[in-house]
Amino acid sequence: MSSFNGLKRIAATSIQNSGPFILGNQLDPGTAGQVIVSNGANESATWGTNSATLPNALTMGTDLSLASGNTSFDGSVPDTINAAGHGFGSGGNGIDITGATISTDNDGTTINNTGGTGAQNQVLKVPNALTSGTNVSFSVGTTYDGSAAITINASDTDTQLNLSEGNGIEITNTGGLNRTIAAKPDEDTIDFDGDELAVQKVPNSLTAGTNVSFSSGTTYDGSAAITINATDTDTTYQGGTGISIDTTTNPDTINCAGIPNSALSNSTISGVALGGTLANLTFFDSSGAFITSYNGTNPPRSVVLDGDTTYQGGTNITIDTTTNPDTINLNGTLTNVNLTSATNTFPLFVGGSEILKSMSYIDNSAQNFNRIFNTSNEFFFSGSQDSGTDTLEIDFTATSSTGYCEYGFYANTFTSGLVFCVGIAAATGGTSPFATTLTSSPVAIDAYKIGLFDGTTSTYSLKEILDFDGFENTYITSKFFFNNLSVGTRYRMALYGRCQSVGSLFINSGGKNTTGLASRSFHQPSFMKFYEYDSSIGGARTTGGVESESEGDGGGGDDY
Prior knowledge:
Layout: E1 35-37, E2 46-48, E3 58-59, E4 64-66, E5 72-73, E6 81-83, E7 95-98, E8 101-104, E9 111-115, E10 120-123, E11 130-131, E12 136-138, E13 143-144, E14 152-154, E15 169-173, E16 179-183, E17 190-193, E18 196-199, E19 206-207, E20 212-214, E21 219-220, E22 228-230, E23 243-246, E24 253-256, E25 268-269, E26 272-273, E27 281-284, E28 290-294, E29 317-320, E30 327-330, E31 355-362, E32 368-373, E33 378-379, E34 394-397, E35 402-412, E36 419-428, E37 463-467, E38 473-482, E39 490-499, E40 504-509, E41 526-533
Antiparallel strand pairs: 1-2, 3-5, 4-6, 7-8, 9-10, 11-13, 12-14, 15-16, 17-18, 19-21, 20-22, 23-24, 25-26, 27-28, 29-30, 31-41, 32-40, 33-39, 34-39, 35-38, 35-40, 35-41, 36-37, 36-39
């Protein structure tokens, strides 16, 4: 290619060229893949290879490496980047990760991974060889490492056999190392029965003594079966209390006669000694007429009873003769019935009435009082109150599932604004509620908690009974209603209370006025009553909506 001169310098922001770049005076167009290489200041550019380096090298991270072994790549030399685990991490002991392939890393000496189908781990041999010792040999070589199958053999070169006879043992030399070991019996008490040891007899004989005989001989040593017999030659007896011996007969005759009452375990009839006179035994016929009596005379009088089994019904009584035996019925509708007897009873809750089941009250000359604080629950009059020993407790067996406990007591306090709550505790089976010790914790035997009110056990009977805001003392009476009593169960119940706010309260009862003058030392009695009523008319326990009311609005009291 020809050269040309007269080139001009061009200063431009961009050059758009659709043809080749031609460098140098020789107009060199370069070859494919070459780049324009600067040869320095004031020197013409030429075509050359791309040997430039990056200003900032690329560093290999986790699981990445260069085939060259370099830790970074700046483009100065061609290289290959490899990913070691592709996210699998590095292999641990016995594991090799190459690229995406995970394989076992075996030592190739004791184990490799080319067994079975060619890709399975297999043991080649054990790392430590087994060496044959004295009197031991291998079918091949003198060591064994499991790499090939061989046979192990043992040779006994000990020709010394030392045996000694113990008690009862006999050893016979039958040539070489052969010995015969046999038992050695005395041939008197023990000998061979064929090839087995057998007892012949005992060493010491049993001799027959007085009144004893053997069916064969006079001694027994077990060598033969015999029978032992005993003969009682004593025919002399004496009679005890009530017993006599008649020796004139052969054999003697033993008679029982004249046994006193004192010799008998049971010497009375209905508390009367044998031989005594019993109370008259009187008999009546079907009409109620006297027949005869027996008063213990001997011989007894004859007694003839009426064998008539035919009956007829009287007033309000019918006889059903179609049954066997006959059935006696009481008419359902009674007429002209006399109910004046005090023993007559009536059905429960006639006309919807109530039944008083139990009542307890304290109204003694000596005053009783309980002091109750806000720190713990306290029984009313358990017998160990602050003053007095009287108890306030009701005790009954339920004949209906419904009823109510009515109570009353006198209370006073010196703490203004004190809020006082009262509850009822119950125990069953004759156990007193006072057997339970009350603490600051909720009362476990609370009647509501044990399900005696409506069957639920999540709430307690303890309720606000009085807010002493502006009051110092008052007489309180109210009721607890029960709807889930168990018929036939015995209940014992008592009152308990606790102050809701800080302070204390006194429950007073009893004290008698002997002067006729007014005094604060004498109080109304405290009482408890339990009434039952028919469960069918008891009505369902109802709950209404709760309306929140603020203090002082004249509504239903304060909320606590």
